[in-house]
């Protein structure tokens, strides 16, 4: 299939809407509240339903910010923002866009984790698409209600089994699909009207939820095996049929399913697993920047991954592939990687309990006979890693002895405690920096405040090594190029481009990754790199992408990307009649049928 259609919702296009009066005011995609113009108030039967003053978006943001600040806890702020999203989406995104740094930890990691844990208690109004394993036959019909083939660009799906590091959250996992899409819109500029959050409710094995009389999901053990696979497949096939141009993003699936599903569907369609690939991209970019600061060759690094699950093995594979791309053999590359899991250092003798992804890195027992392979400090002494990565959900696993041991072998240890939310981090940056006298190069999965070292008085900003820095740019690139697949080379292009944005390249004391507040800007560039690579590989399915050979081609490509990014501002609202509705169904107008 090829498409020459431009992105259907350029920034300033009017929106057509068939609703009026109270129905319009309670539809968050169209509602402007006090900002409806005088003409719109007449056209859409809003007179008498609003106070007379017409406000600007800026005034609305100012008011909303005051209300936000009046909330007395992070979870109350999260609930406030959720209800704002349910009232007026443009205002919601405008408020976030003006306060990214302050509000991202509220709508995303770590506070969203708490909200997901309390989903059935905090529930007010549903958002997203709920598909139940008991109604497999209805999947396609239910998805069809979300739009035509040109109306959905980006879908995030979770089955709620492994949310962040907090485990099985059942139907509450819809919260992670929504949160990831908020970032896709805020930092990736994909219009929220064209995104779709999905939860596949397959039951839950979380006893607290099963025993909670207010739990909103299926109160039964998780469906496994054939029944599970068939259900997921009915969903994926319906997506491919109904939304053939959309990118499908898998989030927080369990260890037994995440990689399997990615490997199954990746050859067939544009799909992406954020925990495996998004995490690998952002972590690899961090490692490249850190190696530059430490003045060591990326290709020579020894990498120790603590927590060899979905994220950990994804990072290991990505590092291996970068080393192979640099000219080493696969056997040599694998020798630079060590995995540790609950058994300790993964060895051949553990094979019966290892996943295939772990197996690839298991070590010969004979090489470690004199090492206590269940003790991280002893492993570090034996392996002498340059890089220590935590993806274990094991809080404080990187003890002082471990970190100090590491710094006796390498001058600038690269230490990345990535487990989310904050309380699960393998170490706190303040400790790691204190234990190493500021020598360690640190980045974390959740946001941490800057650290000032007592000894030197020097202050270090801590980079957030969260896949949120990477997936919006990758997603924007695949959406705009309408990529057929997401190839390894596209991911590699994203890594290299992201690494170029590391503030540490200009100032070695600066963070290893761009700030979350800059991700939107960075995403334009990452998307451009992804699109360019998709074109080279023959995977792009859209005409009009500025050509590489042309002078100014790269600058034009970035402008082409920028022009198509959605921004939170009010569009003129026009009355939709039957003609507009039919054009909308063909994707020619920015009307949203689901509104
Ligand atoms: N920063 C990011 O962008 C990012 C991205 C993805 C995941 N994560 C975080 O990484 C963590 C793991 O996520 P996942 O999806 O890979 O989960 P997972 O369940 O697939 O993997 C976790 C692994 O850690 C192992 N483990 C558990 N306790 C351990 C211990 N005490 N010692 C050693 N290994 C132990 C488990 O056996 C498992 O193999 C979560 O906290 C998640 O939030 C962070
Ligand atoms: O959601 C995040 O904050 C990152 C990552 O996807 C995770 O599962 O922890
Ligand atoms: Mn995740």
Please describe what this structure looks like.
Keywords: Metal-binding, NAD, Oxidoreductase. Belongs to the malic enzymes family. It holds the Pfam family malic. Its cofactor is Mg(2+); Mn(2+). The chain is of the alpha/beta class. Among the domains are: 167 residues, 3-Layer(aba) Sandwich (Rossmann fold), CATH 3.40.50.10380; 188 residues, Rossmann fold. Helix content is 42%, strand content 10%. It contains 25 helices and 16 strands. The chain has a 7-stranded mixed beta sheet with strand order 9-8-7-10-11-12-15, sandwiched between helices. It has a 5-stranded parallel beta sheet with strand order 2-4-3-5-6, with helices on both faces. The protein has a two-stranded parallel sheet with strand order 1-16. The longest helix has 21 residues. It is globular. The protein starts with 14 loop residues before the first strand and ends in a 10-residue tail after the last helix. The N terminus is likely disordered. Nicotinamide-adenine-dinucleotide (NAD) binds next to helix 14, helix 15 and strand 8. The site of nicotinamide-adenine-dinucleotide (NAD) has 28 residues, from helix 14, helix 15 and strand 8.
Number of helices: 25
How far the N terminus sits from the C terminus, by CA atoms, comes to 28 Å
> Which hetero compounds are present in the coordinates?
nicotinamide-adenine-dinucleotide, (2S)-2-hydroxybutanedioic acid, manganese (II) ion
CATH architecture heading of one domain: 3-Layer(aba) Sandwich
Say how many strands there are.
Answer: 16
Taken as a percent bin, the fraction of beta residues is 5-15%
Oligomer: single chain
Protein name: Malic enzyme
Cofactor: Mg(2+); Mn(2+)
Organism: Tuber magnatum
InterPro entries: Aminoacid_DH-like_N_sf (IPR046346), Malic_enzyme_CS (IPR015884), Malic_N_dom (IPR012301), Malic_N_dom_sf (IPR037062), Malic_NAD-bd (IPR012302), Malic_OxRdtase (IPR001891), NAD(P)-bd_dom_sf (IPR036291)
């Amino acid at each position: 299939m090829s498409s020459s259609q431009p992105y259907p919702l350029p920034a300033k296009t009017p929106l057509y809407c068939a609703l009026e009066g109270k129905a319009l005011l309670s539809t968050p995609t169209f509602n402007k509240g006090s900002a409806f113009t005088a003409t719109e108030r007449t056209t859409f039967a809003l007179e008498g339903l609003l106070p007379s003053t017409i406000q600007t978006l800026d005034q609305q943001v100012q008011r909303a910010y005051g209300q936000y600040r009046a909330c007395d806890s992070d979870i109350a702020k999260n609930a406030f923002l959720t209800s704002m999203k349910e009232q007026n989406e443009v205002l919601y995104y405008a408020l976030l866009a003006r306060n990214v740094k302050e509000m991202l930890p509220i709508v995303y990691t770590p506070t969203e984790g708490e909200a997901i844990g309390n989903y059935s208690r905090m529930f007010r109004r549903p958002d997203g698409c709920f598909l139940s394993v008991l109604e497999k036959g209805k999947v396609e019909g239910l998805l069809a209600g979300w739009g035509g083939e040109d109306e959905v660009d980006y879908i995030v799906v979770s089955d709620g089994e492994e949310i962040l590091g907090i485990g099985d959250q059942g139907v509450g996992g819809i919260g992670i699909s929504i949160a990831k899409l908020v970032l896709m819109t805020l930092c990736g500029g994909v219009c929220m009207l064209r995104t779709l959050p999905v939860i596949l409710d397959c039951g839950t094995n979380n006893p607290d939820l099963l025993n909670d009389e207010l739990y909103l999901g299926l109160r039964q053990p998780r469906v496994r095996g054939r029944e599970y696979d068939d259900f997921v497949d009915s969903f994926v096939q319906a997506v491919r049929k109904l939304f053939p141009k959309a990118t499908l993003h898998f989030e927080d699936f369990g260890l037994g399913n995440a990689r399997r599903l990615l490997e199954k569907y990746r050859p067939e369609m544009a799909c992406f697993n954020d925990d495996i690939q998004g995490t690998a991209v952002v972590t690899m970019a961090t490692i490249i920047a850190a190696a530059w600061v430490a003045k060591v060759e990326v290709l020579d690094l020894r990498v120790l991954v603590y927590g060899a699950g979905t994220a950990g093995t994804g990072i290991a594979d990505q590092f291996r592939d970068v080393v192979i791309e640099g000219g080493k053999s696969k056997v040599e590359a694998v020798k630079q990687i060590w995995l540790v899991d609950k058994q300790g250092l993964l060895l051949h003798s553990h094979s019966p309990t290892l996943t295939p992804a772990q197996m690839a890195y298991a070590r010969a027992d004979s090489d470690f006979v004199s090492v206590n392979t269940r003790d991280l400090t002893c492993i570090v002494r034996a392996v002498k890693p340059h890089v220590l990565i935590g993806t274990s959900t094991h809080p404080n696993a990187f003890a002082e002895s471990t970190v100090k041991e590491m710094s006796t072998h390498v001058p600038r240890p690269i230490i990345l405690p990535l487990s989310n939310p904050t309380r699960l981090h393998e170490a706190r940056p303040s400790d790691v920096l204190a234990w190493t006298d500021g020598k360690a190069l640190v980045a974390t999965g959740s946001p941490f405040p800057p650290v000032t070292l007592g000894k030197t008085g020097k202050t270090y900003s801590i980079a957030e090594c969260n896949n949120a820095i990477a997936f919006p740019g990758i997603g924007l690139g695949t959406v705009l190029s309408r990529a057929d697949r997401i190839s390894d080379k596209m991911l590699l292009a994203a890594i290299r481009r992201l690494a170029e944005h590391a503030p540490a390249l200009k100032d070695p004391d600066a963070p290893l990754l761009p700030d979350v507040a800059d991700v939107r800007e960075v995403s334009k560039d990452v998307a451009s790199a992804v699109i360019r690579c998709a074109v080279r590989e023959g995977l792009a399915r859209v005409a009009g992408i500025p050509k590489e050979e042309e002078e100014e081609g790269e600058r034009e490509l970035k402008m082409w990307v920028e022009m198509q990014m959605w921004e939170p501002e009010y569009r003129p609202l026009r009355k939709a009649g039957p003609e507009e509705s039919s054009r909308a169904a063909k994707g020619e107008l920015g009307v949203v049928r689901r509104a």
